[in-house]
Amino acid sequence: VIDFSSAERNRFLQAYIDLHLQSKNKTCSHNELQSAATCCLKGCQEHFWAAVVRFAQKHANINPDDAKAFKRTIFVLLALDRVQDLRKAVSVIYGCFPGCRTWLDWWLNNAQAHMLFKAVTDMPPGTWDIAPHTTNVQESHHQYLF
User: Is residue 139 part of a domain?
Assistant: First the structure.
């Protein structure tokens, strides 16, 4: 589980590849390892939720009277299992909250979406639900790692 910075994502991918290329059983190519590493990535839902709250608090983006409904509607996207359900929900959100289109498009970008939304994850079936949803425990130990 990582946050959504491209630097952190790229560093994880490179570390995964480097680790496996150094092993004695070098049976996978660089591209195969990159694909395997991508399947291990999951974005931190707490970081996403914080971004949703920040976006909803800006009155230029969302009418204050609609902020609660916006947050609830966005959070539903995380639980959807099927791509077509995700697309329908996003279409409804765009209709109800047109000011969020650019912001939500960034989250729906391939790199972020595959780490955040179960409907489009690259993880093997069943893995998504058992993988942690947040990095907060990891972040509390960064002082020991770096």
Answer: no
Task: Name every residue whose Cβ is closer than 8 Å to that of residue 126 and which is 6 or more positions away in sequence.
Answer: none
Q: Which residue shows structure tokens 């770096």?
A: 146
With beta carbons less than 8 A apart as the criterion, state whether 1 and 132 touch.
yes
**Residue 29 within any structural domain of the chain:** no
pLDDT value, residue 63: 93
- Residue 72 forms part of a structural domain: yes
Rounded distance, CA 99 to CA 32, Å?
Answer: 40
Domain membership of residue 26 (yes or no) is no
Domain tally, the chain = 1
Domain span including residue 76:
45-120
Tell me if the pTM is above 0.85: no
Q: Is residue 2 classed as helix, strand or coil in its secondary structure?
A: strand
97-136, pLDDT tens digit by residue?
A: 999 999 999 999 988 898 899 999 888 878 878 777 776 5
